[in-house]
Write a structure and sequence with these properties.
The chain is of the alpha+beta class. It folds into 2 domains: about 200 residues, Ribosomal Protein S5, domain 2, CATH 3.30.230.10; about 150 residues, GHMP kinase, C-terminal domain (Alpha-Beta Plaits). Strand 4 and strand 5 form a beta hairpin. It is globular, with a radius of gyration of 20 Å. The strands form 3 sheets. Strands 1, 2, 3, 6, 7, 8, 9, 10 and 15 form a 9-stranded mixed β-sheet that branches. It is about 35% helix and about 25% strand. Helix 2 packs across helix 3 and helix 5 packs antiparallel against helix 6. The structure holds ligand DP6. Ligand DP6 binds next to helix 4.
Length: about 375
């Protein structure tokens, strides 16, 4: 458990909060997997350098409970946070920054003592600690708190505000507020798109309904370079401008493919995005490699295997070593057999999370 006492200029860590809980709110929010990657930021408060698009997942969730109680003074922000009942130091710098920025969007926060308890449904040993689901769940709780106190959320639609707030915590989190397909970042190719919040993509070919994502766990533990640090390295990257153009081109092509259901084109675009992301990491001024030899072994086996079995297997990776294997619902049995026979040997302790696209967060 950690407690922040955030004054205008300083943050003080103190002991556990003790208060009689007046009201509790719980949201269960899924993680997401990007098909077109957000990699690089514009000037401003967590604005994306290019539009991105993702599948919202169904099984990998964060469940967050926010409890609040009125306090006497209203000039300090007093928040406690625990993950699985304990401190989670890797999450704390992001949370602290988040609350400093969130104060202006929720001016009432200083009037309350706030206790936050969070947990993930991902297997603990998988090493997946998603800031996307965590920040989105927290943003939804804060919007519900505002609704509880004021009767409505300021600034318009509930989910739009939640997405906007989640973005401030972690860019990719803003896409977890809707399911099963969302887009974040202003683009001429999608009406209503915005850099401030994600938008839901309603119309897509039925083949993408319940699309499967088997997450092949290759490595657990903290990453060598965080995503936030990775975004910053794009600033002076020699290929950044070309990357943003390519992301826009891939987005345009993918939006078409999501309508026409061309699975071969889907694979080409999604794999190009994942490999370009990792190529950018390897080619900057401070190069780094987040793939593991087993990530490569999996990719090679998938490429060889699908030529032989004809399955529509697509690989993608976020900024880490774990490989997401995407395939249509109707190919599930054969794909699972392929994973068991060919890929499991490369997974850490044989771990695979079998997930699929989901409908987004749920208030419990
Ligand atoms: C590779 O959203 O984790 O997963 O905004 O700094 O918190 P911050 O970064 P984050 O970056 C995610 C990058 C990615 C691609 C993606 O999800 O689009």
């Amino acid at each position: 458990m950690i407690v922040w006492q955030i004054n205008n200029s300083s943050t003080v860590l103190s002991n556990t909060l003790n208060f009689a809980i007046v009201k509790s709110i719980t949201w269960k929010c899924p993680s997401n997997i990007a098909l077109v990657k957000y990699w690089g930021k514009k000037e401003g408060l967590q604005l994306p350098a290019n539009p991105s698009l993702s599948f919202t997942l169904n099984q990998c969730h964060t469940v967050t409970t926010l409890s609040f109680s009125e306090k006497e003074d209203d000039n300090t922000l007093l928040v406690s946070f625990a993950f699985d009942g304990k401190r989670m130091p890797s999450f704390e710098p992001k949370l602290e920054k988040f609350f400093k920025n969130a104060e202006s969007m929720f001016p009432f926060l200083t009037r309350y003592l706030i206790e936050i308890n969070s947990t993930n449904t991902f297997p603990h040993s998988s090493g997946i600690a998603s800031s996307a689901s965590g920040m989105a769940a927290l943003a939804l709780c804060l919007c519900s708190m505002e609704q509880e106190i004021s009767g409505s959320v300021s600034g318009g639609d509930f989910y739009e505000k939640a997405s906007n707030v989640a973005r401030i915590g972690s860019g990719s989190a803003c896409r977890s507020v809707y399911g099963p397909l969302t887009l974040w970042g202003e683009t001429e190719h999608f009406a209503g798109s915005s850099d401030l919040h994600s938008v839901k993509i309603d119309l897509f070919h039925p083949v993408f309904k319940n699309y499967r994502d088997a997450i092949l766990i290759v490595e657990s533990g903290e990453k060598e370079v965080s995503s936030t640090a990775g975004h910053a390295l794009l600033k002076d990257h020699p290929f950044s401008m070309a990357r943003y153009d390519e992301a826009n081109n891939n987005l345009k092509k993918l939006l078409k493919v999501l309508q026409n259901g061309d699975l071969k084109a889907f694979t080409d675009i999604v794999e190009n995005e994942a490999l370009m992301l990792h190529a950018l990491m390897m080619t900057g001024e401070t190069p780094y490699i987040l793939m593991h030899p087993n990530s490569l072994a999996i990719i090679k086996h998938v490429w060889k295997g699908r030529k032989e079995n004809g399955l529509h297997l697509t690989i993608t990776l976020d900024a880490g070593a774990n490989v997401h294997l995407l395939y249509p619902e109707e190919e599930e049995d054969k794909a699972v057999e392929f994973i068991r026979n060919e890929l499991l040997q490369y997974c850490l302790n044989g771990q695979v999370i079998y997930d699929k696209t989901g409908e987004g967060p749920l208030q419990l």
